[in-house]
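Notes from hallway chat w/ T.B., transcribed later so I don't forget. T.B. wanted the structure written out for a chain they're using in a teaching module, and asked if we could keep both sequence and structure tokens in one place. Agreed to drop them here.
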Amino acid sequence: MTTSSTIQVPMNDLSIQYREIKPGIDAALAEVIESCSFILGPQVQAFENAYAAYCGTDHCIGVSNGTDALKLALIASDIGPGDEVITTPHTFGATVEAIFQVGARAVLTDIEPDYFTLDVGQIENKLTSQTKAIIPVHIYGQMTDMDPLVELAREKGLKVIEDAAQVLGSTWHGRRLGTLGDVNFFSLGRGKALSTVEGGIILTDRDDVAGSIDSRMTDISKYNASELLNLIFKALTLILFQLPALFWIPKALPYLRVGDTIYDIHFKIRKLSTFQAGLAKNWIKKLKKFKLNRKDNSRNWVSLAKTDYLHNYCSKNGHIPDMLRYPVRVGERNSWESILNESETHGLGVMLTYPTSINGVCELRRFFKGQQYPAAEGLSHQILTFPIHPYVLQKDIKKITELFLKEISNGKVYSR
């Protein structure tokens, strides 16, 4: 049983984040029921138009999740059987699942160890006559080095499909991340900077890509009644248990799959529902607030620790990330395990990100037999992430920092 001296701080705002969207849920349900339009109602079009305007792009298409968005982006880019797509081994499994679903082959290229993103300098060595596209994945809020990547892609005639799931709202040289590729996509899943329980967005300035996606939307299934009710039930359940001390309850309910890392190469594409679009009500205001809170909390880890163990997260080429999570590398295995155990015991919310690189995932290992990616593989056994979401209090950050420093006093810990 949790004692009064034990704090409970979730890694991501998986349940307490829904304080912010609870009014949206109430309004979305009322409006949807009144109009009897659960799928592709006016709320979806309004959200797509607003998001396109926010990002400065010509076309925005909403789908049920980020994996759906990537699969459609690949299809619209004419990626299919026999084609190769270059991406990173340090990413969520859905990146390669979508590649496999369209019949293409995922070609992994190792990461830059100090920045955790695709090492652009290694890409050219992986190119073959079958290479058709590159998927850079921005991670934790840190962006891939896009300028040389886009230049290389243009030189070689390759498509760039930008995975901006973890950098929603961030900018680079005055442009929104998620607008730098030929086609780009975001996730609105739980724990993201903007969440609608589930959801995905595709952005592009290319009329041919948008036209290809639009032509396929008529063949894409809607949420059926059971799926939609399950989606609504998830949202309502997360609200009911929104108090920080109760954040573990949704995690304990199997159907929510909170905290699960799910690999499924047979997923089905769904259209964005009116209910999901309704959850994004006042989303620009929410996103701005969340970004400011996360940035302040990221800085607090350093200012409170006042030690060489922690450093400001690296900025690259002048880009200062809007962090989604605060990553710390633990160079000593015993310290790494001890910190995880301490976090579990005290409910601190310090967690792993990806338990292994893509080539080590059991469900995907057969696709990458004999392949090694030293930087990504090493990172998966060193990295932890600290909670920086808007509901982490200053006293929580201080407590987590004190316990962290106590645990690693004899270890080797660094944030880059």
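Follow-up for T.B.: Residues 1-8, 242-247 have pLDDT under 50 and may be disordered. Might be a good example for the class.
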